[in-house]
Design goal:
- By secondary structure, the protein is α/β, with parallel strands linked by helices.
- The protein has 7 helices and 9 strands, in the order E-H-E-E-E-H-E-E-H-E-H-E-H-H-E-H.
- It has a 5-stranded parallel sheet, sandwiched between helices. The chain has a 4-stranded mixed sheet with strand order 4-3-6-5.
- Helix 1 crosses helix 7.
- The chain is globular.
- 33% of the residues are buried.
C-alpha cells in the first residue's frame, strides 16, 4: 500500500484512527461508544482466530477465522499486519483498510501497539493513535477479573503483557486515562474532529 494512500483520488484527506491499550483497559467499549456518537465513521473489521465473546458477530466485530484460513491469508500476503496474542492470531487485511477509507472518509478501529506501528509505517501520516491508560494496575486487574474468562495463570500473563504494553504508550499520538467510557469516547471524538478540521 503506497504512502500516498492517505490523500485519495481528489486529494481529499482520509483519516485512520486507532485505539489501543493493554488488555481489559476498555478499548472495545470506548470504540463502540465512539461509533454510537458519530455515525459517519467507518468501521474497519479485523481478523482473529479466537472464538466470539458474548454477542460478538462475524463481519461486525471481527472476521472470525480458523487457523487454516488465517494462514492462507498470511501466506498470500493479504495482511497489512498480523500478530499472535495470548495464543490467538490477529490481523488486518489490506482490503479492509482500502474499503474502510473511501475518498475523504474517516475510519476507526482497535489493535495492539505493535499493529499500530506497523500500520503507521505502511499507510502513512493519515494514521493517528490513541493509547488508553488504566487508572492503576490494580484497577486493570479488577477489570480482568470481572471478565471471568481467564484462569489465574492466563490473567497473570495478561498483567505481565499489559505492563509491557504501557511501556509503549509514548509511541502514540495521544494518551488518555480511561476512567469513564463515555468521557474517554467524548475526548477522543473531540481530538479526532480537531484533527479533521486542522485545528
Amino acid at each position: 500500500m503506497p504512502r500516498g494512500f492517505c490523500a485519495g483520488k481528489m486529494a481529499k484527506r482520509r483519516y485512520l484512527f486507532v485505539v489501543s491499550g493493554p488488555s481489559a483497559v476498555g478499548k472495545s467499549s470506548v470504540v463502540e461508544e465512539i461509533f454510537k456518537r458519530d455515525a459517519s465513521l467507518k468501521r474497519i473489521v479485523t481478523c482473529t482466530t479466537r472464538s466470539p465473546r458474548g454477542a460478538e458477530q462475524h463481519g461486525v466485530h471481527y472476521f472470525f477465522m480458523d487457523r487454516e484460513e488465517f494462514a492462507i491469508h498470511r501466506e498470500n500476503g493479504d495482511f497489512i499486519e498480523f500478530s499472535e496474542v495470548y495464543g490467538n492470531s490477529y490481523g488486518v487485511l489490506f482490503s479492509s483498510v482500502s474499503e474502510g477509507i473511501n475518498d475523504g472518509e474517516t475510519a476507526l478501529f482497535s489493535i495492539n501497539w505493535e499493529g499500530f506501528l506497523k500500520i503507521k509505517r505502511a499507510v502513512g501520516d493519515c494514521v493517528y493513535g490513541f493509547f488508553l491508560l488504566p487508572p492503576s494496575m490494580e484497577e486493570l486487574k479488577l477489570r480482568m477479573k470481572k471478565r471471568n474468562t481467564d484462569s489465574p495463570e492466563i490473567m497473570a500473563h495478561r498483567l505481565e503483557v499489559a505492563r509491557n504494553d504501557l511501556d509503549h504508550s509514548g509511541e502514540f499520538d495521544f494518551c488518555l486515562m480511561n476512567k469513564s467510557i463515555e468521557e474517554t469516547a467524548e475526548n477522543i471524538l473531540k481530538q479526532m474532529n480537531a484533527i479533521r478540521q486542522n485545528v
